[in-house]
Amino acid sequence: MSDYVDLILAVMMQESSGQGTDPMQSSEGAYNTRYPQQPNGITDPSYSISCGIQELKYALEKAVCTGPTDLSKIRLALQAYNFGADSYFAYLEENGQTVWTAQSAQAFAQMASGGTQRDEDDPLHDPAGPWDYGDQYYPDHVLRYYHLDNNS
Hints:
By secondary structure, this protein is mainly alpha-helical. It is built from seven helices and no strands.
C-alpha cells in the first residue's frame, strides 16, 4: 500500500482530520475484530489505521485499481470503503455498473437505507446525500485532499 499513502492520508482527513482514537473510522469495518463494531468503537489510533488500510486495500483490489492515478477505479474503491465493499460491489455487479456516479451511489444508499431519507434539517442531508446511509458523495469528499505529484 506504499503507493497509496497519499490516498490513505486523504481518507483519514475526510474521516477525522487525523484526530481521535479512530482516525480512519474503521470501527464498523470487517477488519476490526478487537473493538465494538459501532461508531468510534476503536480506541487505539494505530489499530484504526491498520484496519482502515486493510479495508481500503480490499476495496482497491475489488475495484481492480491499477495504481494511484487510476481515478475511475479509486472512486469506486472509495465509495466501497464508505458503504462496505462486498455489498456495494455486489450491487454494482447486479446492476451492470462499472464506474462511480453520484446517481448509482444514491440508488445504492436508497436500497441500503430501506428507502429512508434524511430529514431536510439533518446536517448530513446536503453534504452526504438524501438517503440515510453513508456519504453518497464520498469519493469527491476524499479526493479534494488527494493531490497527485506530476512525477507519479
